[in-house]
Specification:
Strands 1-5-4-6-8-7 form a six-stranded mixed sheet, with helices on one face. Strands 2-3 form a two-stranded antiparallel ribbon. It has helices at residues 2-11, 32-38, 48-56, 63-73, 82-106, 114-121, 124-131, 136-156, 161-175, 180-198, 202-222, 225-230, 236-246, 251-267, 271-291, 322-344, 357-375, 379-400, 410-419, 439-442, 456-459, 493-504; strands at 28-29, 292-299, 302-309, 424-429, 447-452, 469-475, 508-514, 518-524. The chain contains 22 helices and eight strands. β7 and β8 (518-524) form a beta hairpin. It is of the alpha/beta class and 525 residues long.
């Protein structure tokens, strides 16, 4: 539903929602309204003012929708999943490039940078990001660019013109794409400012502040609703976010839920086990190589373990390498974003932490590489061990997960709806926005009726039955005790169907299909 909403908010001409302007006041509506909502009509191409208007009546900043509208404008009246997937693939490619650059920046090893790219690039978490036709792949791209520029400044201890331009563009693009970019940027900016103040490089601070400030101000100037939504005074989602921030009773449950999401989609559900094994690997090295020196020796006809106690009589110095503080920056940023996103997200689902997936991949590969390097001195063997680990963990994620956003049944459902083009269709809902989920099917019927489930007695008698058949869509929320507005549901799907049969005189029913939002039946005599 959200993905079809992406098309509607992008392409519907100054009409953000299907129910606006009294469009659903009458039981009978035009099936064409769904096609007009999701595609660009003649004369409405490249109307970006409409996109911005629609977003002020929804939730998010408009950049993702503007791109989708621009592509749809090249194909008036047409709908295609590729209008959304192709840009996502491009965002994915840019993300991969900058993740590789971050890997090279952190560890001066020509092979290491490939491992986080492989681990992230082929993970089911990334498949979900790319196939989900929303703004989260674009957000992740901006976050990766933003992070790279900051880390490069830290590593080189200077700021170049290209850094300033990239930070400006990434800040503008990120803020103009999703409010969660601010959550990601906040800790990284704080660490950068502390680092520059410690070095007393006030000239660099001035350039840096101007660069990021111009990017943020431009985004707000083009879309002033950003300020309202960030402060919780805008759309309902921003208000719900603010309510979540004020509730201190659910920290543990929310963090646990998001931990499970990361564990399942990136580590096959064994994230905690992997961390324990990694910690044991480090601990074993400290015990056997630092505190004591242990060697396995062959003596006569048996093996012996020789243990020598190491005495540290000299002062031990720990060298903080460049890669150490760069990794610490990423760790602290990820921890901050993870906790805050888990706490304030309107729903506890994967999309709110998708922008962390490349960085979590990098951190895990760094940890694994570090442990292998402790125990294995041959670089070729380290690389083999890393590749095998990536394959095993990656394979496990595909074993325990199905991709979230492929909808293999969708094509079949559309084909079924086309078989009933000469049949009247009735959609019964608890909340009208649910119909968007079936928009690609509903546009195929000859006549279309919609109504609230409590209005059946009043409105069903006016439904014009064609060919003694009727296709009925029933909102699956009828299965629940309460609807989305918190009102008690007074009729289940079975009783609802029986009532429609009684009112129409169509005695027989056959289930055509069902999806995550609706049951679909054919009624006939």
């Amino acid at each position: 539903m959200d993905e079809l909403w992406s098309y509607g908010l992008s392409n519907s001409y100054y009409h953000a929602q299907i129910w606006e302007d009294g469009a659903l006041d009458n039981p009978e509506i035009s099936p064409d309204m769904f096609k007009e909502y999701m595609t660009v009509n003649e004369g409405e191409a490249f109307k970006f003012g409409s996109v911005i208007y629609n977003q002020t009546h929804d939730s998010h900043p408009p950049l993702f929708y503007m791109v989708l509208h621009a592509i749809s404008s090249c194909f008036p009246g047409q709908f295609s999943k590729w209008f959304g997937l192709i840009p996502n693939l491009l965002y994915y490619a840019v993300t991969i490039i900058f993740l590789y650059k971050i890997g090279k920046l952190i560890k001066k090893d020509k092979y290491f940078a490939f491992f986080p790219v492989l681990f992230f690039g082929f993970s089911i978490a990334t498949v979900n990001m790319v196939t989900y036709i929303r703004m989260y792949m674009l957000l992740t791209m901006w976050c990766t660019i933003f992070a790279y520029e900051h880390l490069e400044m830290m590593a080189s201890r200077k700021i170049k013109m290209k850094n300033l331009i990239s930070i400006l563009l990434a800040t503008f693009g990120g803020v103009f794409t999703h409010y969660y970019f601010v959550i990601f940027a906040f800790p990284m900016v704080i660490f950068q400012m502390i680092w520059m103040i410690m070095r007393k490089d006030f000239k660099m601070i001035g350039k840096y502040v101007v660069s990021g400030g111009v990017g943020g101000v431009c985004a707000v100037a083009l879309y002033p609703a950003i300020l309202k939504n960030l402060t919780g005074t805008g759309v309902s989602h921003s208000q719900k976010t603010l309510q979540n921030m004020h509730n201190f009773s659910d920290w543990t449950s929310r963090i646990r839920k998001f931990w499970v999401i990361v564990s399942e989609e990136m580590f096959g559900g064994v994230f905690m086990l992997l961390l324990i094994v990694c910690c044991l690997g480090i601990l074993a090295y400290l015990i056997t190589q630092v505190l004591w020196e242990m060697k396995l020796q062959y003596h006569a006809d048996h093996y012996e373990i020789a243990v020598n106690n190491k005495e540290h009589t000299k002062t031990v110095y720990v060298k903080v390498k460049r890669e150490t503080y760069l990794i610490c920056d990423i760790i602290l940023t990820c921890a901050f974003v993870f906790v805050i996103s888990a706490k304030i997200s309107p729903w506890q689902v994967n999309r709110y932490i998708m922008n962390l997936f490349p960085f979590l991949s990098l951190l895990f590969c760094y940890l694994l590489y570090f442990i292998y390097k402790l125990w294995i001195k041959n670089k070729a063997k380290i690389q083999i061990a890393m590749v095998i680990s990536m394959m095993l963990i990656g394979g496990l994620t595909y074993y325990v997960n199905d991709p979230c956003y492929l909808y293999p049944e969708g094509e079949n459902n559309i084909a079924i709806s086309k078989e009933y083009t000469d049949t009247t269709c009735l959609y019964v809902y608890t909340t009208s926005y649910i119909m968007i989920n079936e928009g690609l099917e509903l546009q195929n019927y000859q006549r279309l009726y919609q109504m609230y489930y409590k209005d059946l007695d009043i409105k069903v008698p006016d439904v014009s039955i064609e060919n003694s058949k009727l296709v009925v869509y029933l909102d699956r929320i009828l299965d629940k005790k309460y609807d989305d507005l918190g009102e008690k549901v007074t009729m289940d799907p079975e009783k609802c169907l029986e009532k429609i049969q009684k009112l129409t005189g169509l005695k027989n029913s056959k289930e055509l299909y069902q999806d995550e939002k609706a049951y679909v039946y054919e009624l006939y005599n």
